[in-house]
Write a structure and sequence with these properties.
2 copies of one chain form a homodimer.
Chain A lengths: L2 H20 L4 E2 L2 E2 L3 H10 L6 H12 L4 H22 L9 E2 L2 E2 L1 H4 L2 H20 L7 H15 L4 H13 L6 H26 L4 H28 L2 H4 L5 H4 L5 H24 L8 H12 L3
Antiparallel strand pairs in A: 1-2, 3-4
Helix pairs in contact in A: 1-3, 1-4, 2-6, 3-4, 3-9, 4-6, 4-9, 7-9, 8-9, 9-10, 10-13, 13-14
Chain lengths: ~300, ~300
């Protein structure tokens, strides 16, 4: 493993531990509580994944000398939102997926009602974690974190993007490149971008540094989505850990449809360079974020 | 209308206006945004209702001289959580209801996917509203509000209660009175209780006053649920605005089953007196909350 991969995997492990300690306990003195099924489904839905968003928050906070303990709490809150969105997006009335991260989706492992509630509760947990003084002693910072995460995951961000995506499937006319870009910036980009923002909030970053990080995250997020579409078009289910060629089958506009295979690869490479260039004000301490941009690009090769 | 009813209805109108101004705009300069369907469903899901929880927060805050504008924002956030829980609870995989507040439920008016997303986004909006400096200038207060609402609506509160309720339907053994009381305290009681708590947080209430208000709200919440079960057992669909005799049909444990009709009525009356008694440290300024307790009791007569 490269240094970068070691670091990515160590953060994924730490996020798993942080979530495990923050999510409600299923048993007290060996007795299961009545709502145990909900708590099991929350833990199940929040397990696995590369924890990319948390990693971005943790690495950004590290540049500003923030304690890892505090950064991991922020990362865990972001992963709660990400996990809730996956649990709900996989539901039969949404994308109707059976497989996620190589395992049965939450509604297949449990049932639909439990999956709806587990997603709901994971969203709530994100705000419980951020509002807690243990995340940061300064309540200004905590409020800024809550506001930023809510904005990114709300109707003008992640959830809005998911709505547009579902609507687009129903219409015969495919989305334009501009419309697809806006959709993806909301659906997946907003949460990726806010991960850097939240690291910067935690680190009292200057407005120049914060802007640099947000531009980086914006280009990275779009690149990430293009690479995802490339994987969906060219990867195998085993490799990806979820159903592939699904988006194209569902008539969803993907960047591969819009740009072609080669065009999409070129665009991803261009965005990677552009993302890294935005980080210049931060100097060498942003090297891990640069390595992350390269990593996202190379995973589709 | 009595003074109390005038006040209740004025607050319901103000909450509708506050929500209307806080929820995202569907059109900008006459152009519908791509996520318009989501925003319409959010507004639809948040419409109607007596706004009892908001009223409790607003009336509590008023006792401590808080500006109505700030109290209404807190009330609107609570109603976002309440509305999201109704939208999700009505889904086919949950209670499968077609009627709510006398109109088609959100998934019947729109579709299931839109209802899931609208519920998700309404939850997010609650925290967006509370974290905003417009709610209170002091970030300590805002964080306390976020933490209190998240705790009450999360896995150990509202969502946990809904899980226990769904689980209970599947088992042949009915819940005991103690189990049903815990379920209802989580499912409906937690949000009612936190409405007074949030008014008290906004008003920097002393710990004595805050405790008095929470005890009041706890007894009121239980009384409210018993009255709801009485309405379900004895009311008509037209009167109640949603399907009746559903809970009994679904094999859910109701307080009417557990206590009998007369026993449930007696318990409700006893809880109303007890709730009002808790308010004695607050003197006359708590008269509206006393009237509210009487109102909840009498609506089932």
């Amino acid at each position: 493993m490269t240094d970068f991969e070691t670091r990515l995997s160590a953060t994924a492990d730490d996020i798993a531990d942080t979530l495990s300690s923050l999510l409600p306990r299923i048993e007290t003195d060996g007795v299961r509580c009545a709502e145990a099924r909900l708590l099991e489904a929350m833990r199940y839905g929040a397990e696995g994944g590369k924890r990319l968003r948390a990693f971005m928050a943790v690495e950004t906070a590290r540049m500003f000398g923030i304690e890892r303990y505090n950064a991991l709490r922020v990362g865990a809150a972001i992963e709660c939102i990400h996990a809730y969105s996956l649990v709900h997006d996989d539901l039969p009335c949404m994308d109707d997926d059976d497989l996620r991260r190589g395992r049965p989706t939450t509604h297949r492992k449990f049932d639909e009602a439990t999956a709806v509630l587990a997603g709901d509760a994971l969203q709530t947990m994100a705000f419980t974690i951020l509002a807690d003084p243990a995340t940061h002693e300064n309540p200004f910072i905590r409020c800024e974190l809550v506001a930023a995460l809510a904005r990114a995951s709300g109707p003008r961000g992640m959830v809005g993007g998911q709505m547009i995506d579902i609507e687009a499937e129903k219409t015969s006319e495919p989305l334009s490149l501009a419309e697809t870009s806006r959709l993806q910036r909301m659906k997946t980009g907003a949460l990726i971008e806010v991960s850097c923002t939240m690291g910067a909030i935690l680190g009292h970053a200057s407005s120049t540094n914060r802007r640099a990080l947000e531009y980086y995250a914006r280009d990275f997020g779009l690149c990430f989505q293009i690479c995802d579409d490339l994987l969906d078009a060219t990867g195998t289910e085993e490799m990806v850990g979820k159903a592939v060629a699904k988006d194209a089958d569902a008539g969803k506009a993907t960047f591969v449809d819009l740009l072609g295979l080669d065009g999409a690869k070129e665009r991803a490479a261009m965005l990677t360079e552009q993302a890294k260039a935005h980080l210049s004000p931060l100097g060498e301490r942003a090297d891990t974020l640069r390595a992350l941009a390269d990593h996202a690009l190379y995973r589709q090769k």
